[in-house]
Amino acid sequence: MDFQVVVLAGGTSKNLVPLVSKEVPKALLPVANRPVLSYVLELLELSNLKDLIVVVEGEDAALRVGGWISGAYVDRLHVEVAAVPEDVGTAGALRAISHHLTAKDILVVSGDIVSDVPPGAVAAAHRRHDAVVTAMLCSAPVSGPLESGSSSGKDKSKKPGRYNIIGLDPTKQFLLYIATGGELEKDIRIQKSILRAVGQMEIQSDLMDAHLYAFKRSVLQEVLDQKETFHSVKQDVLPYLVRSQLKSEVLLNGTLQPEENGNEKVSSQNNQLMLSRILSNASTPSFHQLYASGSNGFASVRRTHKCCVYIANSSNYCARLNSIQAFSDINRDVIGEARNLSGYSFSTQNNIIHPSAELGSKTTVGPHCMLGEGSQMGDKCSVKRSVIGRHCRIGSNVKVVNSVVMNHVTIGDGCSIQGSVICSNVQLQERVVLKDCQVGAGFVVTAGSECKGEALARKEK
């Protein structure tokens, strides 16, 4: 397809501390005992997109990510790893490597996506519409544990997240409006010019911008060059392109008129709100056809560009590992309802226990669990809906529920771990009780400690 692919792999993301560190950048965080970046790379490989630039924030992180890629994908992908300064943002990262971009179209993919939606389908939709940008939208994932170890039932329901307010044309192919983050708390204001041109818009708040975009390179480079303050692709570049697609001056019945700045106020309470056709009759074609043809008294002085969407099927899985909660959710999903993504074969008990793992007597590893290579568990242990990494040493009478335990972790007798993330090389001494905690790499939790909702980590030097 002669698309160039840029994978934005981040660095040591602040909102993932203490899971990330200098030794473990975000791209190498384990999902079902595989680096999260492997899910994106294999998804691209399946779409035959094998020429990649992987952008990592920070020189040290880039060296670690590059070293892992060169070992894991040596004969499969052509990958160039580019280091950019930390905290430049996604737009800044693209700006820093823009001199490497030469293809007509660029596919920009976040390195933290875990999904089975083929990127090639987004690229094909982009080409079909000759769009300047095509954004992939997915159903917003639900968050929180399906099954809580606590006796109170209040944690048992998963809640859908609210991500964006998105305005689409009736065919759901064109992106007409997008608001993210803090803007969601305010009433939406939509330009009358957009409503007049499109006639009808559907507002949705149950879709997630998956941070997978196809761009026309010339337009992307122009925006990055001209808008030096733009920091984020999602919050700056995309909304700017969406806003400016109808900014050209308009000829109405032969008279040149500047574009109106008037806004229509729209309540965003309803999930799907159909706006009445405003200043338009029911037979109006799509606004891109209308502008191109100059029909209905309109003609564009400057050609408007198209911002399009590719909406993934609701049966597809798509989530981003951009928070500690998302890390836990995705690990649970990939060994549960989204097991097709794991790359592993499951046992008849619906779990994955490495042949080299050892289990003591009366120890149970439930369905939707994973026990990694070389790990050992003592007697009378119980593991439910959890991932346990490689070469862990777990004593007797240990309970692990809804948790992720990384590699080389030592857990003493009588420990109870619930809703927690235990990073590599951690030592939990006897009778430690953890609920909803994160324990950073190499930390030692002393015997008998009881912690709830805490982040425990060594001070970084």
Can you lay out the helices and strands and say which pair or pack?
Layout (H helix, E strand, L loop, with lengths): L2 E6 L21 E2 L2 E2 H11 L4 E7 L1 H14 L5 E7 L4 H9 L7 E6 L2 E3 L3 H11 L3 E7 L2 E2 L15 E2 L3 E5 L6 E6 L7 E4 H7 L3 E3 L2 E10 H10 L6 H12 L5 E3 L2 E3 L5 E4 L5 E3 L12 H7 L4 E3 L6 E5 L6 E3 L3 H11 L17 E2 L4 E2 L4 E2 L4 E2 L4 E2 L4 E3 L2 E2 L4 E2 L4 E3 L2 E2 L4 E2 L4 E3 L2 E2 L4 E2 L4 E3 L2 E2 L4 E2 L4 E3 L2 E2 L5
Parallel strand pairs: 1-4, 1-6, 4-5, 8-21, 23-26, 24-27, 25-28, 26-29, 27-30, 28-31, 29-32, 30-33, 31-34, 32-35, 33-36, 34-37, 35-38, 36-39, 37-40, 38-41
Antiparallel strand pairs: 2-3, 6-15, 7-22, 8-15, 9-10, 11-12, 11-14, 13-18, 14-19, 16-17, 16-20
Percentage beta strand: 25-35%
Low-confidence segments: 146-157, 248-262, 266-285, 291-303
CATH class of the largest domain: Alpha Beta
Helical content (DSSP H or I, runs of 4+)? 10-25%
Largest sheet: 7 strands, mixed
CATH-defined superfamily of the largest domain: Spore Coat Polysaccharide Biosynthesis Protein SpsA, Chain A
pLDDT averaged over residues: 84
Domain Nucleotidyl transferase: 5-152
Family: Belongs to the eIF-2B gamma/epsilon subunits family.
Pfam family, one: NTP_transferase
Keywords: Cytoplasm, Initiation factor, Protein biosynthesis
